[in-house]
Amino acid sequence: MSIDRRQFLKIAGISSLLGIGATAASATHNVWIKGIEPPQVEPGKEALTAEHWAMVVDMSKFKTEEDIKKAVSACHTTHNVPDFGNIKDEIKWIWKEKYESAFPDQENPYMEEKIKEMPFIVLCNHCENPACVRVCPTQATFKRKQDGIVMMDMHRCIGCRFCMAACPYGARSFNYRDPRPFIKNENKEYPTRTKGVVEKCTFCTERLAVGKIPACVEAAPKGGLIFGDLADRNSEIRKIVETRYTIRRKAELGTGPSVYYLIGGNEHA
Amino acid sequence: MKLYDGGKILIGLVIFIAFAAFPFYFNIGKVNAKPEPKLDTPVILQMPEQERKCVEPKAFMRTEHMQLLNNWRDSVVRDGYRQYVSEASGKHFNMSLQNECMRCHANKKKFCDECHNYMAVKPYCWDCHIAPKEDDRS
Questions:
Q1: What is the mean pLDDT of residues A229-239?
Q2: pLDDT of residue A77
Q3: Minimum distance, in Å, between the CA of residue B80 and any CA atom of chain A
Q4: pLDDT score recorded for residue B69
Q5: Residue A142's closest chain B neighbor by CA?
Q6: What's the rounded Cα separation, in Å, for the pair B102 and B97?
Q7: Predicted pLDDT at B112
Q8: Same domain, B14 and B79
Q9: What phi-psi label fits residue A112: left (phi over 0), alpha (psi between -120 and 50 degrees) or beta?
Q10: Considering only CA atoms, which of A238, A247, A242 is closest in space to residue A57?
Q11: Total of domains in chain B
Q12: Residue A159 touches partner B, C-beta closer than 8 Å
């Protein structure tokens, strides 16, 4: 028996309708393929939330290099940052920098010696318009919509290092070697990284999620690092940025860094 | 029909078959041993009988745990949601392989590796996540 054109179209029409129905039915069963969304997941009760997390570094509070070291080592031990012992492979989330390297645009040959020689504490600026996010081919690094933190998804990082080339602050480090053997005291509650991924400061998202402030802020001298919501008019950080003169690193590049530096300190303010 | 050099050919065939079949008789009884993931960690044993339940039902976890973990990761890293509400029991769980799953299943070798080795899958979880310390008594 052969079918004519009319019969063929009928059968084709009915079977495609059935096909659409079948995919719709199976979609409800495959909720796991699509991912989970609220109310299946929650942020957690104690979580600290903000619209725009930002930091102010009050340089007057960092009197010695020891003060900076405290903040750095608090961060690096919490996040299992390895110490390879050589500057070529170095991995850093937060570190000490000279004025001329931190603020090359603010150069001035007759600047106060004291400021020129001050050790600055620098970290990822969690930019409003992050260059690293723009170049990442896998969206392994991305800007969190809810609070503006520039995050890393280590599972997705393919180690292309475009982000390192794009970041004007040198805030990203690449794992040229397996970091595991070079971590002195493993924090068992935080993962390490593997060879071939880029890492950087995450503003301690894992600590914010359980109601703690970032590790560096906790370890720094009181008031040295001020962390808060820049979008909140009543927050301490917003008041400081509004009432006192602060500078940001390479702001002219248009990245919109979220880390502000109070340099004059108390005596000039 | 006559088979020339029959003896040599037959001996050769026997040797060939013995070689070719080596993997089969060498592994008799070994490979067929079913993987038996152990659930006897101290933390699990301390729980009262009725509360000894995973995040979701056992059958679901057995077939979909990779998908669940994948979604957990996306949820935690990308969306910032860290609490999971179980579909089965309504209980809350911290979405963390290292801190939540392994809190009960502290026996990675007897729990994770048991099946993964059998299936010859090599998930790269432990390249970064730190596995719990295990004593080698088992």
A1: 95
A2: 96
A3: 6
A4: 94
A5: B78
A6: 6
A7: 94
A8: no
A9: beta
A10: A247
A11: 2
A12: no
DSSP state of A20: H
Radius of gyration of chain A (CA): 25
Handedness of CA A87, A93, A97, A102 (dihedral sign): positive
Instruction: Tell me which chain B residues have a C-beta less than 8 angstroms from the C-beta of A38.
Output: 81
Which pair of structure tokens corresponds to residue A165?
């080339």
Q: B137: distance to nearest CA of chain A, Å?
A: 22
Report the gap between the CA of A205 and the closest CA in chain B (Å).
8
**What are the two backbone dihedrals, phi and then psi, of residue A249, each rounded to the nearest 5 degrees?**
-75, 125
Average pLDDT score over residue span A131-139 = 96
Q: Write the residue in B77, B85, B127 that is nearest to A39 by C-beta.
A: B85
pLDDT at A112: 85
What ipTM was predicted for this assembly?
0.81
Q: How far is B29 from chain A (nearest CA, A)?
A: 37
Same domain, B48 and B88: yes
- The pLDDT of residue A203 is 96
Q: Is residue B138 part of a domain?
A: no
E strand or H helix at B84: strand B83-85
Contact A41 B95 (CB under 8 A): yes
Are A38 and B99 a contacting pair at CB < 8 A? no
Grouping H, G, I as helix, E, B as strand and the rest as coil, residue A227 is strand
What is the pTM (predicted TM-score) of this model?
Answer: 0.81
- Please state the rounded mean pLDDT for residues A207-226: 94
Task: Judge whether B134 lies within some domain.
Answer: no
CATH of domain A53-268: 3.30.70.20
B95 → chain A, closest CA residue: A41
Q: Is A154 on the interface with B (CB under 8 A)?
A: yes
Residue A267: pLDDT above 80? no
pLDDT tens string A244-263: 999 999 999 999 999 999 98
| B26: containing domain | 1-33
Chain A residues within 8 A of B132 when measuring between CB atoms: 188
Residues of B in contact with A33 (CB under 8 A): 67
B84 falls within a domain: yes
pLDDT along chain B (138 residues), means of 10: 88 95 84 82 90 91 92 92 91 94 93 92 94 72
Do B63 and B6 belong to one domain?
no
Question: What's the mean pLDDT in A88-103?
Answer: 94
From A123, A111, A141, A138, select the one nearest A263 (Cα to Cα).
A111
